Amino acid sequence: MRHRKSGRKLNMDNSHRKAMFRNMVTSLMLHGQIRTTEARAKELRRFADRVITMGKKAPSRASLDGLTGDDLKTAKAARVAAIRRVRLWVNNDDALQSVVGDYADRFRARSGGYTRVIKAGRRPGDNAPMAIIQLVGDFDPDAKAVSAVEADVPADMDDEATVVMADVTASDAGESSVVEE
Do the Cβ atoms of 51 and 91 come closer than 8 Å? Predict the structure, then answer.
């Protein structure tokens, strides 16, 4: 009997499972959504929510600007401590900055439930149930690519050319913005 046992073993030993979830959390924070098996997605939800909550505990850079003296030292120490705790689960610097910056600000008013698991059918080959896990909110991975293209557009181009260029770049980025894990 598995009474009072939490978590799924996923047919792996502890170190392999922990490394896999670290990599999956990093991919989720980088891309905003990933495609994996349903059991892994449901288990990943626990870790991703904890990482975002840790990132929210870090004082934002804007809040540090108004502080001086001991308050500033205390806030900086709290920020460094929170970043170090997030660093245990996020292996990429860009993803780390997203967690303590973008996602912490975006989910500041939300008290939990930062991810959503959507069933995505069955995987060809072994018929495993697949799911897409994504961050809730107004996140669109293609919007980052389009906004980056719009920033690179020269000022003398007209609006129609900008829209066409953004549409072409968005289609070049690929049909699927889901990362396989």
Answer: no
Task: Give the number of other CB atoms < 10 A from CB of residue 130.
Answer: 19
**Residue 53: enclosing H or E segment and its boundaries?**
helix 38-57
Query: Between the CA atoms of 23, 95, 101 and 132, what dihedral angle is there, to the nearest 10 degrees?
Result: -60
Tokens found for residue 120: 């995505």
Tokens for 95, please give them: 């993803």
Q: For residue 52, give the nearest of 10, 130, 125, 112 by alpha carbon.
A: 112
What pLDDT, on a 0 to 100 scale, did the predictor assign at position 163? 47
Q: Which CATH architecture has domain 14-137?
A: Alpha-Beta Complex (3.90)
Cβ 34 vs Cβ 28: under 8 Å: yes
Q: How far apart are CA 146 and CA 41, in angstroms?
A: 28
pTM score of the predicted model: 0.72
User: Do residues 71 and 79 lie in contact, with contact meaning Cβ atoms separated by under 8 Å?
Assistant: no
Spell out, as residue ranges, where the chain has pLDDT lower than 50: 161-166, 168-171, 175
Residue 83, token pair as written in the block: 């970043």
Q: Find out whether 33 and 176 touch, Cβ atoms under 8 Å.
A: no
